[in-house]
Specification:
Elements: E1 4-8, H1 13-24, E2 28-33, E3 58-62, H2 68-78, E4 82-85, H3 92-97, H4 99-124, E5 129-135, H5 157-176, E6 180-185, E7 188-189, H6 198-210, E8 217-219, E9 225-226, E10 229-230, H7 231-243, E11 249-252, E12 258-259, H8 260-271, E13 279-281, H9 299-304, H10 313-336
Parallel strand pairs: 1-2, 1-4, 2-3, 4-5, 5-6, 6-11, 7-10, 8-13
Antiparallel strand pairs: 9-12
Helix pairs in contact: 1-7, 2-4, 4-5, 6-8, 6-10, 8-10
Length: about 350
């Protein structure tokens, strides 16, 4: 029997790594994609196959977690064994600008999916295992190191919504006996990270500055500390949670924390650039309430499921910088050929 997985948020950073991971494990992978006026499946390009081809094992379906009936149609059509709920308005600062929308997608979107799963299981008798993408942001102002036992103290509309989604998931597990696991993932980055998150904003900008395509990089709080891991390592943890004998909630983290300043230092070194001469502060990137210090204690998943991160902080910085230097080189070639290169990173996120 071929296992079928359905991923909401498949076009995002994690969705693309998870789809690759599951395809490599032999799964048939289905993804929910938002209708947009331009293609939003760029991160899936390397695994995309025309669904008309016999060998295709990746299928995309239009859908949106704000549209419950659409979600029910997709679930009925796909009949998945596993659902990974990764869809989110995932930018913390943007959630202060769009709190209601963020709540609708992140909190109520999760509830819509859970309720559709409950009904599907009751109506068909077929089981679905459910992964909920929780976040270390839920710990917010709680002191590090944060583990499954640490109280949630969310500091943004995004984080409050993730806490609600977490408890919806726990409630559906307990009330209906469903196999639902919450991952509480600390920050994880990659060469596919959205360009408005701080790590990628930095590597993209420093690479462009190095090649003369950009002059300055504007950032907010450089003192915030994060536990940064590599996204490909973290999607394996998601799968392990659904492959386990029992459902549960797990912190996924490296256990090492660095400040934004330290990330800049490491990225600047790799580029051969003095970051202090090009970075300026812009208060628009500050958050009304900040999360100062995240550092995870992931002993539970290490002991219970045998997960551990493979890529170190230094390796992560190097792979992101090297990737973005290559991108900048391509942009430079285009610029020299007379094409306009638009630098967006410094005015967003
Ligand atoms: P991401 O790159 O921002 O991807 C988010 C995905 O959600 C995209 O595919 C996006 O589609 C989709 N989406 C947004 N609104 C939607 C809606 N209304 N209906 C359906 N899909 C929608 O985020 P990520 O970094 O891959 O993170 C994946 C999940 O893990 C998110 O839930 C995030 O909150 C959570 N998380 C991330 C981290 C991290 O460090 N990366 C840590 C903890 C938790 P478009 O491509 O069309 O925008
Ligand atoms: N985005 C951004 N842009 N962040 C900046 C900037 C800037 O110009 N300057 C400083 N920062 C600081 C932020 O204030 C924050 O303290 C830190 O860098 C990390 O910001 P982000 O990279 O935007 O990530 P995040 O930690 O807020 O949220 C990410 O990780 C969460 C897990 O802890 C997102 O991926 C969330 O979806 C995820 O849940």
């Amino acid at each position: 029997m071929i296992k079928k997985a359905l991923i909401s948020g498949i076009t995002g950073q994690d969705g693309s790594f998870l789809a690759e991971f599951l395809l490599a494990k032999g799964y048939q992978v289905h993804g929910i994609v938002r209708r947009a006026s331009t293609f939003n499946t760029e991160r899936l390009d390397s695994i995309y196959a025309d669904p008309h081809e016999q060998s295709a094992r990746l299928y995309l379906h239009y859908g949106d977690v704000t549209d419950g009936s659409g979600l029910r149609h997709v679930i009925a059509k796909v009949q998945p064994h596993e659902i990974y709920n990764l869809a989110a308005q995932s930018h913390v600062r943007v959630s202060f600008d769009q709190p209601e929308y963020t709540g609708d997608v992140v909190a109520i979107g999760t509830l819509r999916l859970l309720d559709a799963v409950r009904d599907y299981i009751q109506n068909t008798g077929q089981q679905i295992r459910f992964y909920q993408a929780g976040s270390s942001e839920m710990f917010g102002a709680s002191k590090p190191p944060q583990s499954e036992a640490t109280p949630f103290y969310p500091r943004s509309p995004y984080a409050v919504s993730k806490v609600a989604a977490h408890w919806y998931a726990v409630n559906y597990r307990e009330a209906y006996g469903l196999f639902i696991s919450n991952g509480i993932l600390f920050n994880h980055e990659s060469e596919r990270r959205g360009e408005t998150f701080v790590t990628r904003k930095i590597t993209r900008a420093l690479a462009r500055i190095k090649l003369g395509l950009q002059q300055k990089l504007f950032l907010g709080n450089l003192d915030a500390r994060r536990d940064w891991g590599y996204a490909a390592d973290y999607v394996e943890a998601m799968w392990m949670m659904l492959d386990a004998a029992d459902p549960g909630d797990y912190v996924v983290a490296t256990g090492e924390s660095h400040s934004v300043r330290e990330f800049l230092e490491a990225a600047g070194d790799r580029c051969g650039l003095d970051w202090k001469s090009v970075v300026e502060t812009d208060p628009r990137y500050l958050r009304p309430t900040e999360v100062d210090y995240l550092m995870g204690d992931s002993s539970k998943i290490r002991k219970t499921l045998g997960w551990k991160p493979k890529v170190s902080f230094e390796e992560l910085v190097h792979l992101m910088v090297d990737h973005d230097l290559e991108l900048a080189l391509q942009e430079l070639t285009l610029a020299k050929a007379g094409h306009k290169v638009v630098v967006r990173g410094s005015s967003h996120g």
